[in-house]
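Input chain follows. Return C-alpha cells only.
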Amino acid sequence: MIEELEIILETASKILQKHVNHGLRQNIISENTDILNLWNDIEQNGLPKISVKEKFGGYEIPFFSILPLIKIINNYGTPLPLSETILSNYILSESDINPPNGVVTFATDTKNIKIEKNIISGDILSVPYLNLSKNLLIIHEFKNVKQAILIDEINGEIILKKNFLAEPRYDIKVTNLNIAEIKPVKNNIDFNFLGAILRSTQMIGAMEKVLDLSINYCSERKQFGRALSKFQAIQHQIADMAVELSASSAALSAITDLDLRDKNYNDIAISKIRAGAAAGKLIAISHQVHGAIGFTKEYELSYFTKNLNSWRNDFGNEAFWEDFLGKRFLENNNKNLWEYLT
C-alpha cells in the first residue's frame, strides 16, 4: 500500500507541476483549454477514483490513507475541485452508487429541500466550482435516513456568491430537478466529519505553500541593505508560522482510520480546530511579511490565503468544534479534560 501510494503521489506531483501556474488560477472557467488539459491528465491517471471500490473502476485505497494526496493537490493550488471530487466519489461508492466520470462537486449546505419520486426542489448552497461540473453530490436526511443524492445535470437559478474567496462558489435554487441516483448513506459515513477532515487537510497543504512563499520572499527581498530574513523580528514571525503548521500536521496525523468512535470524533474536531486557528495566524503573518504585494491578484499568496479563510469556516469553524468537544467532555465527566482529550 505504501509503495502504491508513493507512486500515486509522485504521479500527481508531476501532473500538477506540469499544468498548474498562477495564470491558470486567474482563469477558472470551463472554456479554458488549459483547465481541460489538466483535468484530462488527472482523470487518465485515475486520481478522481482513488478511493472508489474496484467494482466501480477505482483503486479502493482507504480515504484516510490518501490525505497526503489531498495535501499535495492544495499545496500546488490546483484550481479544480479535485479534492471535492475524490471525497464525493468515495461517498458515492460507499453508498453503492457508481461515481460518474468527470468533475464531481458537493453542496456544503442545503435549505428547504423537498424530494418526491426522484424529483428534488430547494436551495443548494455554497457549491464549489459548479461552473466546471454538471455532477453534484447532496447529502440530505430524507424520511429519517441520510441519503446520498447524485445530480448529473444542473438546471435552476445559479447565483455566483459575492465573496472574497479564490475558488468560485455558487448557490442554486432548483425546482423539480431530476435525481440521477439516490441511496442511503452507510452508517460508517458521516459527511460532516469527512468534510472537516478534507478541509483540515486542504488547509495544511495550502499553509505549507504560504510558509514557503514567505520564506522565499523574505530571503530575496532586501531592506536597509540586507535580506528581510536577516532581521530577528522576521525570523520570529517565520518561526511562529512553522510552529503553527507543525501543530496542525501533528493533529491531523492522529487520524488513522474513519471508524465513527469517540477517539476519532475528538481527533477530527481537534484537527479542524487546530488547522483553523493556524490558518488565521498564517494568513495574518504572511501578509505582514509580504507587505502590500501579498494582496495583489498577480501574486499567488492571496489565492492561498483567501481559500484558507473559506475552508476554515466550511463544515464548522473553530468555535463550532470547540463547542462540540466541550459538550462531549461534559457528557463524559468521569475523566479530567487532559485525560479525555489524550
